[in-house]
DNA sequence: CCTTATCCATAAATGTTTTCATGGTATTCC
DNA sequence: GGAATACCATGAAAACATTTATGGATAAGG
């Protein structure tokens, strides 16, 4: 069943059928009605590939993310997909892992699949070593690229991010204000965003006249989805490192910290304050519930899709938008 | 840059270029080398839409799921995407929510987008009211459909599922063997799979000579991602309902139960045993860690993709495969 | 009667895959 | 050794199903 069959049965040309299908003008109400009736009767739908060939688009957006099983990324993907779908776009999901070669490979694959644009979800697509970002610049020559939670200056690249520096600084300050000064910073990522958070922690201490201590900035090298491993990591730390609060770079790490405290018999928040980051489902699974930073994921996703739709409609759009995080006070802080 | 440009520069016909590109036979080594050199030099990649039109396929699989932010479904999507990608397929993700009309709409949309097949992730796509499953039968006339965690007999529909009845029965029996007989069953879904689990619970009781009590089978009507709400639900139950164990239909519900116990000051597992289902990340986030049923998600996903690849290569494949779950004993049971 | 607006049809363009025909080379059989 | 056969590499052309530019026809208005 093709557009020819429809045109024949309706007694019009295929151009007219096409116009009816695409809601273009220059079709009389009568003709439109007649054609629509035939389309309905035949249960005809246009061939998507031929349409794609003619329009050079299939209304498809690529979503690149390192690991869609990660709580945070999964949520981002969910919100983006939802919003795209409401705007009549579908998305091809492609998980790259954290290897640079795979990121290149799959970004290229999406470009070659002729998606209208690619949204790169997560700060890990931008390297601190700028040479490694050339693959982004290359792809941006072909189609617009949107970065969620990353900051990158480049023609045809648009960024939506949360001010992780400020948010972490505020969260850390919140602990300091409660009277606790020896705060362990626990992090898992050295991405641009990861390092910005670390700076926020340092800045909060410095502003409050607290000297920085290297042994209080601990990098957890494992997988942050392995919660017991996080607790074990903290247990294995030098017993001489004393602290009464943990500022964690994400909720997973914070939950690991809580597990550690529970095993050690520490009372939260009296013996140990804990703050997480992301406001994920994990932050409500413990008792007391986790104080955390809401980094406005939903707003970011909403904004990034709005930007994308704008770009695809040839509207001028802001290349960078920065949201502010919000501290959600729950039970793990004083 | 089209196949014509390549053919011209290489001094061959477009048919030969196409043959080289697709690894088809009947091309001399010399010609192949020459053509490949030109392709390389021009950085040529075939137009995906034209290719799709010619082959009536773009190597794309649709993934339908109700809610990809759900821990369990997100994991399923992750494993499936991973495995498909390794087999040179990409996937279009489409979240439907739990409304029947939307499920129909988006399944149709994927079919019209000309995906090679659709994988429906989660038992909620099959209704207990069989008339409501007609949209599945309709779509199956067009392309093969694969169901993860659902059981449905229909030509061109293939199912991979876990024996939820048996698994729940075994888990419940495990509690009974520990000496606890008053077990609350907490569930959130009345899908086919949800009801199978409930039957498993009932069967375990019956087999052990324990009378069924309706008030011990509690349906939680809210969103199982709202953990505090689950705890509140349990708190709101009639205080006269006495029980010393909770068998939950998924880990979220179990974590809610643990929160409830912690608030009430109950000791786990001494005062209250808890078993979850799915072996998700939530099962390791609490202290003690949650005893749960591993329903072989990874194996199911692996199998479903293998089946799909087989079907697309016209190999005869089993229409239904049932895996057995495994009880993971952790700290919330005696 | 001319102009303009409205509407529609023909044809070109999109870029592949694949069938069929052809010419040439190698193999086999007598 | 020559004819028949098979096979292989190649190219021309058809098929895939749309969108859209161009221009022609008809009706309405001045």
Describe this structure in words.
Two copies of one chain form a homodimer. Chain A is an alpha/beta fold. Chain A has three domains: 39 residues, lambda repressor-like DNA-binding domains (434 Repressor (Amino-terminal Domain)); 132 residues, Rossmann fold; 132 residues, Response regulator (Rossmann fold), CATH 3.40.50.2300. In chain A, 43% of the residues lie in helices and 16% in strands. Chain A has twelve helices and twelve strands. In chain A, strand 1, helix 5 and strand 2 form a beta-alpha-beta unit. In chain A, helix 1 crosses helix 2. Strand 2 of chain A pairs antiparallel with strand 2 of chain B, so a sheet runs across the interface. The structure holds a DNA duplex (30 and 30 nucleotides).
Topology summary:
Two copies of one chain form a homodimer.
Chain A: H1 3-10, H2 14-21, H3 29-42, H4 48-55, E1 60-65, H5 71-86, E2 90-95, H6 100-112, E3 117-121, H7 134-140, E4 145-148, E5 157-162, H8 164-177, E6 183-187, H9 192-207, E7 217-219, H10 227-235, E8 245-248, H11 251-264, E9 273-275, E10 292-294, H12 297-312, E11 320-323, E12 326-328
Parallel strand pairs in A: 1-2, 1-3, 3-4, 4-5, 5-11, 6-7, 6-8, 8-9
Antiparallel strand pairs in A: 10-12
Chain B binds a DNA duplex (30 and 30 nucleotides) through helix 2 and helix 4.
């Amino acid at each position: 069943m093709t557009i020819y069959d429809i045109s024949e049965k309706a007694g019009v040309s295929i151009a007219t059928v096409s116009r009816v299908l695409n809601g273009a003008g220059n079709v009389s109400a009568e003709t439109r009605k007649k054609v629509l009736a035939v389309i309905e009767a035949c249960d005809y739908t246009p061939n998507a590939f031929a349409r794609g060939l003619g329009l050079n688009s299939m209304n498809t957006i690529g979503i690149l993310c390192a690991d869609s099983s990660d709580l945070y990324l999964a949520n981002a993907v969910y919100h983006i997909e939802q919003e795209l779908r409401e705007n009549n776009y579908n998305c091809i999901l492609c998980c790259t892992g954290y290897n640079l070669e795979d990121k290149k490979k799959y970004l290229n694959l999406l470009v070659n699949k002729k998606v209208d644009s690619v949204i790169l979800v997560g700060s890990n697509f931008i390297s601190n070593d700028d040479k490694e970002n050339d693959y982004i610049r290359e792809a941006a020559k072909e189609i617009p690229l949107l970065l969620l939670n990353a900051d990158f200056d480049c023609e045809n690249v648009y960024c939506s991010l949360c001010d992780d520096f400020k948010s972490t600084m505020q969260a850390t300050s919140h602990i300091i204000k409660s009277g606790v000064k020896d705060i362990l910073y626990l992090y898992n990522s050295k991405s641009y965003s990861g390092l910005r958070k670390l700076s926020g922690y340092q800045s909060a201490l410095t502003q409050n006249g607290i000297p920085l201590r290297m042994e209080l900035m601990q990098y957890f090298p494992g997988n942050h989805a392995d919660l017991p491993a996080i607790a074990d990591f903290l247990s294995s730390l030098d017993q001489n490192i004393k602290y009464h609060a943990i500022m964690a770079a994400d909720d997973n790490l914070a939950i690991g910290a809580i597990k550690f405290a529970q095993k050690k018999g520490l009372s939260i928040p009296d013996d140990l304050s804990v703050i997480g980051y992301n406001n994920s489902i994990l932050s409500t699974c413990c008792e007391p519930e986790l104080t955390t930073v809401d980094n406005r994921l939903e707003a970011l996703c909403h904004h990034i899709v709005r930007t994308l739709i704008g770009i695809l409609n040839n509207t001028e759009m802001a290349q960078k938008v920065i949201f502010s995080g919000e501290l959600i006070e729950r039970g793990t802080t004083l």
